[in-house]
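User: Could you go from structure to sequence for me? I need the amino acid at each position, not a summary. Structure tokens:
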């Protein structure tokens, strides 16, 4: 925020101006007291003071310390200079304003009769900055967790916490300390601390919480496979830290590359592969997964798949041909059967004609 402050002394016609450059001037009553001027940290502040030629002495003071007496600089701070470019201007410039510059400043004027002074209080605004946040931590499920986020700024920044993963939701508490009681695996992930005031963009930092928990079965798949074929059993768990896998058939542990069995484990998933199934491979298998917090297991079966019998088309054709030779009335080789059929037909024809002649 920038504004001009103007004070009129009256009897001697002296006018002093305290201001920032670049914005309209507003007049104030000398009797009103101290004006507040606000500037952002790192910017340049110009406190303006204009006098007339009847002034005998003039000085700038910060609290009780003399900064300038006339044109003589008493301050050792190289950031502080005197501006006298304009006619009768006696303005104070402070570069790279910091919090230590905050406070009252006085332009003191000694006239021929008695002194006049006017004060302005310089307020330095500071963007929010997080200067301390908890380190990434690892805890066991069920533990209590406290996260801290400390920030400074002027005005005092407001602290907000946000759970980035997996829920990505605001946490209602606006506190420097975030307390999580009986933390669960679903509360693991990144937490973002945001410090905000109206001076500048918010400052944000993150802390990550890893929650350890015992393995839990997510997926277990049995399979059926025919003799001589390949079958696969799958077992997947959820665990932090990652689980170690073991496979058993009945009560006997199975090792990789033994008895025609391969075991492949990638991250949280383990697979048992039977490359050439035999009768000995069928049965109940147990997938065991464990970490430092616990152990879990799943029972998985490898079933025998009996393939359907496919008839031999060549054999079926042969059987059909033989059947035709034995019973087919039109077989060229069965000549006796064919002649008998012709004899019976002629006998029936003669008998019919005789019956018709004699009207039987």
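Assistant: Here is the amino acid at each position, in order:
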């Amino acid at each position: 925020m920038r504004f001009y402050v103007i004070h009129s002394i009256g009897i001697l016609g002296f006018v002093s101006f305290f201001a920032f450059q670049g914005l309209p001037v507003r007049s104030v009553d000398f009797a009103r007291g101290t004006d507040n001027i606000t500037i952002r940290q790192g910017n340049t502040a110009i406190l303006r003071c204009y006098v007339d030629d009847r002034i005998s002495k003039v000085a700038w003071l910060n609290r009780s310390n003399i900064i300038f007496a006339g044109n003589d600089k008493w301050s050792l701070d190289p950031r502080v200079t005197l501006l006298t470019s304009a006619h009768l201007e006696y303005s104070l410039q402070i570069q790279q304003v910091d919090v230590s510059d905050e406070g009252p400043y006085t332009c003191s004027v000694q006239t021929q009769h008695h002194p006049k002074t006017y004060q302005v209080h310089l307020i330095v605004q500071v963007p929010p900055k997080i200067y301390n946040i908890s380190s990434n931590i690892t805890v066991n499920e069920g533990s209590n967790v406290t996260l801290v986020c400390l920030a400074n700024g002027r005005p005092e920044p407001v602290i907000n916490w946000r759970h980035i993963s997996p829920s990505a939701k605001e946490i209602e508490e606006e506190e420097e300390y975030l307390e999580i009681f009986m933390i669960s695996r679903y509360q693991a992930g990144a937490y973002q601390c945001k410090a905000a005031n109206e001076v500048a963009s918010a400052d944000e930092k993150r802390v990550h919480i890893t929650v350890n928990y015992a393995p839990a079965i997510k997926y277990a798949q049995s399979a059926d496979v025919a003799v001589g074929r390949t079958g696969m059993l799958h077992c997947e768990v959820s665990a932090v830290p990652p689980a170690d896998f073991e496979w058993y058939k009945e009560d006997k542990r199975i090792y990789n590359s033994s008895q025609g069995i391969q075991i492949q484990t990638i991250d949280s998933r383990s697979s048992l592969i039977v490359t050439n199934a035999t009768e000995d491979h069928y049965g109940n298998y147990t997938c065991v997964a464990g970490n430092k917090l616990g152990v879990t297991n799943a029972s998985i079966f490898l079933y025998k798949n009996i393939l359907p019998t496919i008839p031999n088309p060549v054999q079926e054709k042969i059987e059909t041909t033989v059947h035709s030779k034995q019973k087919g009335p039109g077989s060229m080789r069965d000549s006796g059967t064919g002649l008998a059929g012709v004899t019976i037909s002629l006998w029936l024809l003669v008998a019919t004609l005789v019956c018709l002649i004699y009207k039987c």
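One structural detail worth keeping in mind: The chain has three domains: 4-125, 134-213, 222-304.
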